[in-house]
Predict the 3D structure of the following.
Amino acid sequence: MGGSSRLGREALVVGGGIGGLAAACALSNHFERVTILERDEAPDSPAVPRPGVPQGKQLHALLAGGHRALDELFPGVVDDLDEAGAPRLTQGLDLRIERPGFDPFVQRDLGFYSYGVTRPQLEFCVRRRVEALGNVRFEAGCRVLGPVSTTDERAIGGVRCQRAGRSETRSAELVVDASGTGELTLAALRATGHTGTAGVPETTIGVDIGYSSAVFDIPADASRGWKGVMHLPDAPRTSRNGLLFPVEGHRWMLALGGRHDDHPPGDEAGFREYAATLRTRTIADAIGPAKMISRVDRFRFLESRLRHFERVPSFPGGLLPIGDAICRFNPVFGQGMTVAALQALALAHVLAAAANAGETVESVRRPFFEEVAAIVDTPWALAAVPDFVYARTVGERPADFAASLRFGAALTRATARHADLHKLVAEIQNLMRPRSALREPQFLERIMAEMAS
Ligand SMILES: Cc1cc2nc3c(=O)[nH]c(=O)nc-3n(C[C@H](O)[C@H](O)[C@H](O)COP(=O)(O)OP(=O)(O)OC[C@H]3O[C@@H](n4cnc5c(N)ncnc54)[C@H](O)[C@@H]3O)c2cc1C
């Protein structure tokens, strides 16, 4: 990343997940020292999931927008993924997409790729790149207990933390909350009296999705016309879905999901049976002869949550949240890590702009929150409309819900027909372009024609 002018001496990042690692890179150009405080120990192998990221045992798709953002922050990190054996998935071609009415959807080479990689492997590659940055330190085994206010109690001047049984206070000009939970930011807002009685405005969608993931050896003799499968449910009749992805080590990772009282089970026989109930036999037949080489790990995701920090009338100085601390998505579309990486890239840009203009670090908050709101708009909307197809989803339906459904159905049909629209939709789904690109006349006209037919 460009620019090396200083905005401060010390920056702290709370949490060493994808958001924290990427944020540390953004900060490293503008602070003398950046320290990542992570409660977990850092695994010295790419095969070890961490307790602090329990979802890391589930399939974690890395969208093309995500690996591109990470590669902009850490030039060469995609080479590390290649070296680690993470398969490239040519969009439109390598993943067999199954959706009602299209089993499978039209397969075409859309000219770009995403990666199949496990979460621990991705984090390992990114952490190694962070450790190579001269002024960033990764302090493992350090649990942050809470924020420390400045003497005037209007801003955050550091954190209290615990390490090897000892409590200490760490000071910094900027604290980035990449804890996933955002508890630190909420505590800071309370401590500095900034939220008042209303709290932080947030939008939630109660989805109650159960996931089960397991890893398989890919049978050696298999000849198929795909590398992975994305099976979307016939909603609202059923919420059962499946995502079979190739990952490093010539393995498949299969995630099965279902909502409310239809969560997939955690035993091998039940897991295989659940796969066999999907609308097509593609996944069940593929894993039939494949050896399961992990246990089945389960995860329950209750609600998506978007915190509108940009609407908090006065936000404390010295603090920025990032990643899941701001927005936690229904994981079905594999967006969370990509959004965290895009936010870190936005942070890098606003820090560089502030440094170039000779402004202070305080000036980055407003443009950062504006960028975050723009980044989050597309992935939130992509996930929210399908969620509300289910009657038991809790939350406020989009006002134009029925129209959105009709638009979505027409878009799917038009996408099957037109290669350029297919490419655009895949770019939007991979968070490379905003959903507003669909309004460009050459695309909108064809979607409208489909709606009218
Ligand atoms: C079931 C499931 C499947 C998912 N699948 C995908 C997918 O396919 N693709 C995708 O992109 N995303 C997926 N996600 C979302 C993804 O996991 C998150 O969006 C992403 O991890 C957010 O990164 P983060 O850095 O903000 O938070 P996290 O990755 O949660 O990292 C937070 C870090 O902070 C540390 N921490 C927390 N509190 C403290 C403290 N007090 N002191 C010190 N350290 C602390 C934690 O140990 C952790 O390391 C999925 C999520 C779930 C639940």
Notes: The chain has twelve helices and 17 strands.
